Each structure stands twice: as structure tokens, then as C-alpha cells.
Amino acid sequence: MPADVHGLSSGARKQLIYAVRRVLRPIVRLLLRVGISFDEFADVARGAYIESAIRDRAGTIPLTRERIGFITGMSRQQIDSYIDNERPRPRVGPSLGRVASEVLHRWHTDPHYLGPYRIPLELEFDVPQDRCIQSLVQQVNAKASAGKVLEELLRAGSVTYFGEKHYRAVARWFITSGYLSPHQIEDFGDALAHLSQTLEYNGNLTDTENKRLERSVFADKGIPRSLLPSFEAHARARTLQFLEEIDDWLARSASAESSGSGPRVETGVNVFLYVEPTPDQERLSALVQPRREISALRISRLPAR
Amino acid sequence: MNSSYLRDYLVSTLRRALRPIARLLIGAGIRFDEFAHLARGVYVETAIRDGTGTPGMPSRARIAAIAGITRSQVDNYIDNEGALALEDPTLMRLPAEVLQKWHSTPEYAGPYGIPLELQFDSPADRCIRSLVALVMPDADPRVALDELLVTGAVVPSGERHFRAVSRSFMMPDPASPEVIEHVGRILSRLGSTLEYNTDPRHSEKRLELRIAADRGLPVELVPEFEKYARVRATDLLVELDNWLSPYASDELDSANRVDTGVNVFLYVESPVPDEPLASLLARAGSARG
User: Fold this and answer.
1) What are phi and psi of A208, to 5 degrees?
2) ipTM of the complex
3) Structurally, how many domains does chain A consist of?
4) Alpha carbon separation from A227 to A277, B203, B208, B256 (Å, rounded)
5) Which of A26, A105, B15, B287 is deepest in the core (most CB within 10 A)?
6) Can you give the CATH number for the domain in which A111 is found?
7) Which residues of chain B does A61 touch, with a Cβ-Cβ cutoff of 8 Å?
8) Which residues of A touch B27 (CB under 8 A)?
9) CA A176, CA A204: separation in Å to the nearest integer?
């Protein structure tokens, strides 16, 4: 997915518009579920367009507001309004869920919190001071409330009570369930943005050798629906094993103590299972109530002007 | 949970998710109005196909109210079939499936499961032509072979044979319809899984897991990480492929089947400073042009 693909064939352009239609569908499904209307969506999208035109620009032609208007097809007023009133964008810090994920990771990989055979130690909430839930959370995010993080981990079932005072990590992964949470929303945006970045990187023709890992395995002509749960269970078990290996590698290789203080980049691996929806076969008009026209009778009853 | 707090997260997420899409569209010369027209249509389509939360067939007025779109616009998308971009499938999936068959069908594998070297059309029951026909009977085997040769997944062996040297298919031209179709397909698959998992009606969540380096990874370690992840991911995918292969047979009942799969990707975030837009413009030569 190159940043600049001018000169697209008409087939490619058509494909691009259809691709965006596909990508938007699950996003819009989520937005409709939480009551975000098209106008609100368009407002954010307009901002994303202007931001991209400015921040992701390529080439050496000086960027003027007129040029942004030309590139995006927006009016000068819209451009000015967005740039000059750069609204205080919602600044959101890492969600509690993200902190909880990192706490679990550290609990399973930091030797200070591991017992024999690298099994995570059972911890008390605040004693001893250097090896407890509080110190663990503190190391991950000094601003986070250890009590809230622990509550989140207990609710997700990743941590359980052990005796009267201790807590045990029973899962290496933090998976939220039920109601839409900030963590889920954050994960939604992160995952889509990460995949977009990888696809974009791989579309860069100047470096054809070093493509970033992005691979799929799929069932040729699908699998019987009845086998889906078995496949999901198998894929999940195998993926957890795979991610634990990756996690161990990262913990071994990437700890701040062992790898100096040079520049660092955020990186990771994501695995997901998909199930393609049934193709849309019916026309939209067949799925809504027929159009109701104003009857001649009602028209005749309208008062004459 | 405070709902405005949740909404802030959502708006922030939306902005993050839309930015690469906007970048791609701008790069392709597609202006905002065209995008907005498409997005408006997706709103109408989604409200209709995925439900409005009320039983029965929705009215056009209800769709307009839910989506926040005028009634005449709703009518336009419903009554004009061409108002929304239609699917125009490419043959992108064909070479990938041919490779998969070549590696997993016993007739095309030699000792230890290594794919046999094949000629183009002989013997008739074990050649490139028969292999392609196994995947898509009406496809042109020459086109499929050319795609595989161009990407390097298959190489000539001697004068007449071809050898599969990779189990996976990488597409060559980033501006080709095939690549764009791939991008749309993969992103929408991830989007669907993520959306499925946020729906409280689904108590069993779909597999979607991520592992990240806490506080990042030193830049110099990234190539080593990529190498390690690639090897481990290949093992994972080959194993899942082997699990799926027995169920791909044409002899099985084709009704009531679902298209499913697993995707693995590695990401590296490029840290972009979030400076005010006005200052970026000033630096580029125009404070207020």
C-alpha cells in the first residue's frame, strides 16, 4: 500500500474504492452501535484527510493552504477552520487494559517476579515493597493506580486470589470481555493502524527484499461450519504457544537493562482469526420497507393556498 | 464508565484508523467528497444489512435517523445500485491457493511431503494445468503460472519443469488491483474480527492477540526480531495449514462452509511527533497562503 500511487489504472482505482468500502464496514458497524452519526464521522474523517495531506506529504513542492485544498478537494474555509482552530483533540493516555497487559507480561518474564521454573510468584498487594503488586504496576506505569489495575486483572480472570493476602497470575494474556471498554476501543484502533502500517511498508517498491512479516493461512474453499469451533480452539492454543515464544524472546533481548539507552521503536506481532461474512446477495431495496408515496387522497385534502 | 470518556477514546481511535486510509486515498488522487460519498453509502448499507436494533424491516426514515443522513440521500443509495462501489474480484487468490494445493495435496508431493517438480501440461493428471484446474477449473493455468514465476514462488527447473520454492505468495506491484484488493481484504478481515469482539452479544471472542515489546525495542534489534518472528510464524502457519488441508477437499459437502483463516503480522511503529498543523505549514513555506 504505497503512500503515493498516482497513475493507478482504472481497475486499481475501482478496486481501491471497493477496498475502502470493505474496510469501513466493520468500523461503521461499531460506530452505529455506539450512536456516532455520519456527520460526526465525516468531521473526524475530514480532519484525518487534512492531517494526512499535511503530515504525510511527499515531494518538495511547498505546502500552502490552497494546495491542501486542491489535494483534499475541500474549501479553503474548511482547511483554515481545521488548522487555525486545531481543536483540543481528545488526549487519551494508555487505557487501564494496556497497563494490565504489560503488568501480566512483566509478571511472567521479569526474573524478579519469577520463582523456580520461571513460574510467576504469588504476590501481596503492597508488601514487601520491592516485590508486590504495587511495585509491579509502578514499574509499568508510575501514574497508574495499582488497585484499579488489580481490579481489572481480577475481573478479566487473568489474576485470582490466593489465600487471604496473595494474588496469583493464572493467565499470561489480558482479554477483556463483555461491554465495550476503552481497552477494546484502543485495541481496535491500534490493531488497524498497525496492520495498515505493515501493509503500507510492504507496498514500498524501493525495498522489495525486506518485506515485513504479513502472512495468512486459510481454508481452501472454506471449512464446514461445524468445524469452526475446533479450528478456533486449535488455532488459539497454537497461537498462545507462538506468542509465548515471541514474548520470551522479547523479554530476553529487549530489556532496558541489557540493551543500552539508544533509540527504541514500538514493535510487536499480532495474530487474528477471521471468518468471512456471508456475501451480501440481496439488494438494499429488498431489505427496507417499500417507499411510501404521499397518496393522491392526502394531496387532495391539503388546504388550498 | 463515563460515556463521554468512552466517546473520546472512540474518536481518537477513529482518527487513528482513518489516517492511513486518508493517506492512501490522497495518494491515489481521491478527494474528500468522493470518500464522503462512499462513507455515507457504507453508513446506509451497514444500518440496513447489520440491523437497526429494532425488529422487522426498517423504514427509510428510520435508516436516515440512525445514520444521520437525509432521507433523499438514503433513497439515492437504496434505489441506485451503482451508488456504492461494487466488487470487481481479481484472480489474486488463485496463485496462493495453487501453492497451497501444491504443498498439501498428496498427488503433488513426493517423499517427505516435498512438492514435486511439475511440467506445464503433462502428464495430464499431474501437471501445472491439472493443479490449477483443481483450484479453479475455468482459470487460465498460464496466467497463474506467470504470476507465480514473477513473484519467485515458483522457479523453472531444467527445460520443462517448475519447482515450488515457497509456500507463500507475495504480490509484486503495489499499485496493482491485486495488491489493493489484498489490502482491503486483510484490513476488513481484521476490522470484522475486532468489531465482532466488541459486540457484547458475542460471549465467545474470536482469536485476536498481540504481543508487544514493553517500552519498545532498540532499533538495532528489529531485524533480528523480524527474523525470529518470521521463522516462528512460518511454523505456526504451516501447522495450521496442515490442520485445514484435509477439510479442503472438493469431495466434501460444499454447502454450509465458512471461509476462515488466520493472519499473522509484525508491525513497527514509526514515532511521528504530533506537532500543531499550523507550525508544519509555516515551516513548509506558507503560514497563511
Assistant:
1) -75, -20
2) 0.77
3) 1
4) 16, 19, 19, 11
5) A26
6) 1.10.10
7) none
8) 2-6
9) 36
